Amino acid sequence: MELIITFIQKAIGQGIAILFGATGEIATEKSGNLNLGIPGIMYMGGISGLMGSFFYELGHQNPSPGVGALIAVVCTLVASALGGLIYSVLTITLRANQNVVGLALTTFGTGFGNFFGGSISKLAGGVGQISVMTTASAFQKKLPGLSELPVIGPVFFSYGFLTYLSIVLSVLMFLFLNRTRMGLNLRAVGEDPATADAAGINVSAYKYAATISGAAIAGLGGLYFVMEYLGGTWTNNGFGDRGWLAIALVILALWNPLSAVWGSIVFGGLYIIYIYIPGLNRAAQELYKMLPYLVTIIVLVITSKRNKEEKQPPASLGSSYFREER
Asked: Into how many domains does the chain fold?
């Protein structure tokens, strides 16, 4: 029983960073933009939040965990939103190819994180690692009382506030997309921007808003991984392929934020299941890490054959809209 509880905890822990990225990308893709820069934006969000809290702690003898956490969140949101703005300007205003811009943003974001991570590590006197334990304690604080309950406590109430925020954001995103006029307008933009434009909807404004806010949400996944999952440390290239798993989760969830919640836990479990299988060599472990992608491919094939409209990507996904060609 204890092993099962531990596995569920670790699966949730692995999945939350992916959930943040997927929720942000769902918002972006609903506008018709395909942002393959999400992995890089998660790097930018993680290192920016860590840098903000690091310099705060460096300048105060008795830093407050709460203030450090607030600074980290603000820095993350600003940096990741800036990444979304760069993507938006290049693809919406300057009409650059979305795939090329996204991949370039991922390369830039990864390099940005590794460069500043290494630089600040030297400033801190470490070797390849930064640590902000005081600020991280605010992110790792569990729900008092509830986390001590048997069985349900460790499974449901033993996480930091970013874990619960990720689920709240997914629920709010679902309600926004399906229960509000602005959400319906955003979906209309993603399905047929020309028709939406003719109906008086500002296509560019919706695309900008969805892409920038989606990037900000995705950036919180990087902050979660650094602060809550790793306990306030940074190691270059430590994110692995979690950013790409976030994009894959969008497909697994069929562009539904609520489905992304359970999908992230499935992905988290599949990503670490090799640890719980004895006798695997390194090559076999890498094969098991492919399981999330394999499941995504299977789901994509099945849903494509069923051809249900509500389970398909936005019709204009990945295509730029030029009003003059309407």
From this structure: 1
